[in-house]
């Protein structure tokens, strides 16, 4: 009944790999075109915003904007839907 | 304006306001406590606690206050420190709101009780102990609150102490909680010896925390939150008055165990054994409690088993490494479960003490407000979309569905969700609809605003709390966002299945055919045979073992067989062996002496 189980039964290993035999990519896959991942928000900004440690990831800039928007629209909870969506889709892509 | 200062002061002010009705009578002779004073005190405390919660939601300010330090020994100091973080700042207003509503209801429910002020004072003590537990920053202060809620639970369950079942129920509560306390003390002992502190800040996920203290924590939560194994006290605790059931055994005390696991979560977030244990224990508890609730006939017991089932669901959330979801479920569950208990209390009082749902029916026309709020509470409990229960319960089930973990736990939880729908609909059908089975001349009324306003207030909370909390607090863990449609609606689907099943089953009962009671219904009705098995077997073994040790081992063995009597027996044995060696014939001995002397004289002369 889990999603992973359903996918395992219906499709092949490309859609849902066996967790005990996860594919390991070669270390230099696509190396010339790969750039190091850069954080958009700096560490000082995250620390100043007092973002919890688990959420200081590569989507932190969206979260900072979202927190600022929530603080600005305070008693009204429905002002920040686009920023929330941006953060959610960044997390999803992560 | 210095926000942390305002935060600290307002939280301490809340606690101070709550302790006013206890301290003022000691200080002055003219001050007499009344239930209304205590209710208004809690209302004021609730309004005061909204201030720090708003500050926290607005600015994310948290604070840690250390009030006094008990310099225990040279290198182990126990500060009396209070932690005002998201959990405590959010739970304070929720607990105070629910308590205010319950106390207002209790002014009507316990109005005929001669010791009503003492009742309210006990509830206030309980509330203060619970809030100390919530706001504690180290395990010592938490333990103070823990024991406090245990003792007040005992005193309140046995409120009508002339009734023997109430006394046994209170004893059950205390004993089962004590077994859980062993686990908590074990963990505290290990922490004190290994990390030299009891502060929550020091709970870092180290790889070398042995599993035993963490198992102790799980045992403590099992005892306090009535997970399977230490659960019988919760249905038995329904012997107490309904406000007690509503406050202690639905919203606040039974979540203390889960809250402990939430607070100490960093310690076992790496330990897969403990997480799996929590997951499986929670799944088993939720299914077992839901099964037992299917055939109960006492309305309070149905709601008690429902509480036990939801606590299992919170434990499942902890086992999924999602303490924030568990806390969200605690918060939303408090609203609708307290409201369900208050509605049932209103129904019970209106029917002059009748608690059996087989003797209730057709109350929708007679008690419209109460039954509407009962329906809202039941819908929220089942996880109806966009009511309070949906935001927490559905998210837990989604996360369980999409995590690569125990499929067995998943199956159990889904079955339990459908059973939740079944017993809820059964209760609704038998209590509210159908033919009227109540005796005539019952004092059915809900004209008193002390009844209707708490219930409607909590109904408002049940509807909006989930939405409010999730819209103001961004989630700490990324929720699973993609899943096949079937997984997304699986919770709804099993709930709908449960509703259909309940409607079918109610048609069977209306057909007036004598039902064959199979083994499954017997299992459910006798609560899994757990109570007689454990309550008779374990004390018998312990007491007979104790009797064996006291009389056979100590009295007979040490004092008799290995002591004086044993020595005496050895002596007697030796004597018996030697005594027959002589025959006692003195004349024969003298004759032989004389003969041998004569022979010697004759041979030498």
TrEMBL record, chain A:
This entry carries the following GO cellular component terms, namely:
mitochondrial inner membrane; mitochondrial intermembrane space
The record describes its membrane topology as:
Peripheral membrane protein
Keyword Disulfide bond among UniProt keywords:
yes
Q: Which Pfam families match?
A: NDUF_B7 (PF05676)
Q: Mitochondrion among the record's keywords?
A: yes
Cited InterPro entries: NDUB7 (IPR008698)
Q: Which UniProt keywords apply?
A: Disulfide bond, Electron transport, Membrane, Mitochondrion, Mitochondrion inner membrane, Respiratory chain, Transport
Localization per record: Mitochondrion inner membrane; Mitochondrion intermembrane space
Instruction: Provide the family line.
Output: Belongs to the complex I NDUFB7 subunit family.
Question: What protein is this chain from?
Answer: NADH dehydrogenase [ubiquinone] 1 beta subcomplex subunit 7
Q: Which organism is it from?
A: Callaeas wilsoni
Automatic annotation (TrEMBL), chain B:
The reaction(s) annotated as catalysed by this protein in its Swiss-Prot or TrEMBL entry are:
a ubiquinone + NADH + 5 H(+)(in) = a ubiquinol + NAD(+) + 4 H(+)(out)
Residues annotated as domain NADH:quinone oxidoreductase/Mrp antiporter transmembrane: 136-419
The NADH dehydrogenase subunit 5 C-terminal domain covers which part of the protein? 423-602
Q: Which residues cross the membrane?
A: 6-28, 86-107, 119-136, 142-161, 173-192, 212-230, 242-262, 274-295, 302-322, 373-392, 404-425, 485-503, 585-603
Q: Which top-level group of life is the source organism from?
A: Eukaryota
Q: Name one GO molecular function term.
A: NADH dehydrogenase (ubiquinone) activity
* GO terms under cellular component: mitochondrial inner membrane
**Domain named NADH-Ubiquinone oxidoreductase (complex I) chain 5 N-terminal: which ranges?**
70-120
Question: Do you know which InterPro entries this protein is assigned to?
Answer: NADH_DH_su5_C, NADHpl_OxRdtase_5_subgr, ND/Mrp_TM, NU5C-like, Proton_antipo_N
Which Pfam families does this UniProt record tie to the protein? NADH5_C, Proton_antipo_M, Proton_antipo_N
One Gene Ontology term from the biological process aspect of the record: electron transport coupled proton transport
Report membrane topology.
Multi-pass membrane protein
What subcellular compartments does it reside in? Mitochondrion inner membrane
Keywords of the record, alphabetical order, are: Electron transport, Membrane, Mitochondrion, Mitochondrion inner membrane, NAD, Respiratory chain, Translocase, Transmembrane, Transmembrane helix, Transport, Ubiquinone
Per the UniProt entry, the Enzyme Commission number(s) are 7.1.1.2
**Family in the record:** Belongs to the complex I subunit 5 family.
Role according to the record: Core subunit of the mitochondrial membrane respiratory chain NADH dehydrogenase (Complex I) which catalyzes electron transfer from NADH through the respiratory chain, using ubiquinone as an electron acceptor. Essential for the catalytic activity and assembly of complex I.
State the name under which the record lists this protein: NADH-ubiquinone oxidoreductase chain 5
